[in-house]
Amino acid sequence: MNIYFCGSIRGGRQDVAIYQQIVTCLKSYGTVLTEHVAFPELELVEKNLNDAEILERDMQWLSKAQVVVAEVTQPSLGVGFEIARAITLNKPVLCLFRPSSGQRLSALIRGSANNRSFFVGNYEQRDDFEKFIQDFMGYCSQKRTV
Ligand SMILES: O=c1[nH]c(=O)n([C@H]2C[C@H](O)[C@@H](COP(=O)(O)O)O2)cc1CO
Question: How far apart are alpha carbons 128 and 1 in whole angstroms?
Fold first, then answer.
């Protein structure tokens, strides 16, 4: 299973430690194509690419992905863009949001939840997002076999 993980980069890196925990969990289900999003030293990875090259690479990964998981607490234009593209490409999407952050999730994201191809999970603890991911991956694998 190819997994595309989205998390804020230029939108703000305050949740990078949580992205690492999420990526660790996702790796037990398949290949995380965008593992760099969780790297604290991300600039080193991206420094040889210009913005157009980053977009091109990411969109290729997105088309190769079977599922998309996005941490959406820290608002990010890039993450919103990736989610919109994923919807257009008919990829199942799980968004993870932490209400205790004090942020309010965009209506355009929460309003997209349909419990079929687009899910939004409110989490606080690691256990919570692990359960959302487990249920989402189980659901997506079942759909792929029918
Ligand atoms: O250097 C980058 N590398 C990269 O892969 N991205 C992608 C992956 C992230 O899920 C998303 C973050 O967007 P933003 O930088 O607008 O917060 O965009 C974004 C940037 C910088 O915008």
Answer: 22
Pick the residue whose CA is nearest to atom 1 on ligand 1.
Answer: 46
Given a cut of 60, is residue 146 above it in pLDDT?
A: no
As a three-state string, the secondary structure of 67-113 is EEEEECCCCCHHHHHHHHHHHHCCCCEEEEECHHHCCCCCHHHHCCC
From atom 10 of ligand 1, which residue's Cα is the shortest distance away? 6
Instruction: Specify the residue for token string 């419990």.
Output: 115
Asked whether 54 lines ligand 1 (CB < 6 A), one says yes
Q: Which residue has the tokens 């309003």?
A: 111
Reported ipTM:
0.99
Domain encompassing residue 82: 2-143
Number of domains in the chain: 1
68 lines ligand 1 (CB under 6 A): no
Burial status of residue 71 (CB atoms within 10 A of its CB: 0-12, 13-18, 19 or more): buried
pTM for the model: 0.97
State if residue 7 touches ligand 1 by the CB under 6 angstroms criterion: yes
CATH number at residue 24: 3.40.50.450
